Amino acid sequence: MNLFSDVPNNDPGEIIRHFTPNWFAATMGTGILALMLEDFPMAHGLLHPVAQALWCVNVFFFVLFSALFLGRALVFPDSFRRLFDHPIQSLFIGCIPMGFATIVNGMILIWPVTANSALWAYGWWWVDAVLAILSVLLVPFFMFTSQVHSLERMTAAWLLPIVPPEVAAASGGLVAQHVAPWLGVSVIYVSYVFWAVSVLLSLGILTILFLRLTLHRLPHRDMAVSSWLPLGPIGTGAMAMITLGDADGHVFTGTSLVPMAQFDHMAGLMVALLLWGFGIWWLCMAAFFTLRYLGEGLPYNMGWWGFTFPLGVYDSSTYLLFKDTHYLPFLVLGAVFTVMLAAFWVVVTQRSLVGMWTGSLFRAPCLSEETGMLEPECSSETDPHSPSGSSKKTLMDRLRS
């Protein structure tokens, strides 16, 4: 296997033109694994350096992917604009703020927290909040105005642009506990609004998804892993309720809102328990669906990263429930979920690294490998026999011009 041997047209510059936001799902999966290894109850001292190393790797890939994504916007603006009109590719824009949130959380949970590092995390959290609100507003707007969708072709991927605000809310609960109360109060209020927007929309999508599965059965096997995605909003919704409840006690100490902070802590725990119980049903369904798909043959694509982050955030909510309730089954299940997460991550990372090395995963500006759809962008720009394809420029030609 030679480096970039399978890149389209044998031009490494095509990596930029074909770079899609679904690559940020890899940063989501890697980041959440680092956080869960930090919480793993066995061999904690041994896994702490591993968690730190994974966090550093995650930062490297997030910066690399961001550069490639911005490069596509600058060098291939026409191709980049069409991203927002694509009914599948555009959904993965939500992976950008969610991947970034794992980096912010790692600054609090994995590394020693100092006054300076807490302020850095606070500043980066606001960046993540802006990205999250752009995702939840812009992508649905294009879904409503310029994309074509149908109930039969719906998958849980609809959740991807909706979940980032509640991921930011869960992160906000962590950050607010480590900054001055006068800074944390804005984070708290914004986070509760984010939670309300994201969780309620997600529950609506899950209701539609239940109807779609009942009427049209399972999606095509290329989208099989999307069955794990419902765990994402459920897990992060539970996480946010607990972390925000804990943060309220810090932020509102000495104010007239102390009674509300006490209520928020207990109410947050109860809501988290209810969401966690709801997630058990979706976890079982995802496992059943995956076993059925395995019998049919499960082709690899970047969607396999959906095995990681949803399970990881559900795992995180499980650990948080144990810390508040001291109910031992939560700790045991948390450890089991962490082992599952690590196993998924190893398999998916190995497949992804091979695809990166050969360039075979950089052939999908329209995610054709995952959706079975071929968009005009692919046919016109990559086919040398098409009218526009004959005039296609390489990356160096575009940079020179």
Sequence-ordered SSE layout with sheet pairings:
Blueprint: H1 14-17, H2 24-39, H3 44-75, H4 77-83, H5 95-109, H6 115-145, H7 164-176, H8 181-216, H9 231-251, H10 258-296, H11 309-325, H12 328-358, H13 368-371, H14 376-382, H15 395-400
Helix pairs in contact: 2-3, 2-5, 2-11, 2-12, 3-4, 3-5, 5-6, 5-7, 6-7, 7-8, 7-9, 8-9, 9-10, 9-11, 10-11, 11-12
Concise summary:
This protein is mainly alpha-helical and 401 residues long. Helix content is 70%, strand content 0%. 47% of the residues are buried.
Features:
401 residues, mainly alpha
Main beta sheet, described? none
Structural class: mainly alpha
Helix content: 55-70%
- Helix count equals 15
User: What separation lies between the terminal Cα atoms?
Assistant: 33 Å
Order of helices and strands: HHHHHHHHHHHHHHH
Number of strands: 0
Question: What coarse outline follows from CA principal-axis ratios?
Answer: globular
Unreliable runs, pLDDT <50, ≥5 residues?
Answer: 364-396
Q: Mean pLDDT across all residues, rounded? A: 87
Our Rg estimate from Cα atoms comes to: 21 Å
Proportion of residues in β-strands? under 5%
